[in-house]
């Protein structure tokens, strides 16, 4: 598919007695992943989320073929992952995929610079080139000055930054991140999320990100796939899932999230009224949380601008409802 980075077609992972592709699993089988189908666009941050045991890590391990799918096809950056030989798969992982996991997995006897350069040394890149590249990435993730520190001399957040820099050193087309921030305390986690957002926009990488935290998912995702019992229940943008979920489980999952940090002004916009001339206007692409004070501090409802053109009205009532969790009746986004 044009513009796609990853395609996943009818992927299953079934444990137990021998499984025949195309047939229904029996009661003796354990279905860890059921008929996963989706496409991830180039440059997209695709978040896979669900509670423990939902199958999200199994799905990513199938995408990278760290475990063998029982059925289905996976293509990553025009590489047939499911059909690749062991030698081909090793090359795909080295050149196409970067991986960041919850446990930092840094080599304790290597410095920060050496850890970041390690994937390049495995590929046979000369020392001068890999050192220069590693030094650049250490600076990119905000650790300049700590190149010669060892992992034991770093905080948890700093260690995870090294892990991200190491994953980026081989210039992968896709970055797979399996709950990379979940072991950190809340303040460090928020800091690393901010850093991740900055890096993603700067480097324009395609990212597959696993989390069990919906607030984290809506901060980071272009689209979210919500899983339960090995099955993808629904895929959509954060706004789509919060406002127009079609699945009761997803609706319940998203019920208590901070909607003002998900919805954009244009999504809450009401149709223009005749002769409406706002004294206050907001950018339709801004989050409601970011424009709430401006709207509520105005004398009347605010105008919503898209590409500089007045397209709708953001009412004080809708802003208050968004902040307090009250129902808002909207047309589909």
Rg result: 23 Å
Strand order of the largest sheet: 6-7-8-3-9-10
Residue share in β-strands: 15-25%
Number of strands: 13
Averaged pLDDT, please? 90
Question: Total number of helical segments?
Answer: 12
Structural class: alpha/beta
Q: What sequence of helices (H) and strands (E) makes up the elements?
A: EEEHEEHEHHHEHEHEEHHHEHEEH
Query: Unreliable segments (pLDDT under 50, ≥5 consecutive)?
Result: none
Shape: globular
* Approximate helicity band: 25-40%
Kindly report how far apart the N and C termini lie.
24 Å
Main pleated sheet: 6 strands, mixed
Description:
A hairpin with a 2-residue loop joins strand 9 (223-228) and strand 10. The protein contains 12 helices and 13 strands. The strands form 3 sheets. It has a 6-stranded mixed beta sheet, sandwiched between helices. By secondary structure, it is an alpha/beta fold. Helix 3 (112-122) packs parallel to helix 5 (156-168), helix 5 (156-168) packs parallel to helix 6 and helix 11 packs across helix 12.
Features of this protein?
12 helices, 4-stranded antiparallel beta sheet, 6-stranded mixed beta sheet, 333 residues
SSE blueprint:
Blueprint: E1 4-15, E2 30-41, E3 45-49, H1 56-63, E4 71-76, E5 79-80, H2 86-95, E6 97-101, H3 112-122, H4 127-140, H5 156-168, E7 174-178, H6 186-203, E8 206-211, H7 214-220, E9 223-228, E10 231-236, H8 238-244, H9 248-254, H10 265-268, E11 281-283, H11 288-296, E12 302-306, E13 309-314, H12 316-324
Helix pairs in contact: 3-4, 3-5, 4-5, 5-6, 11-12
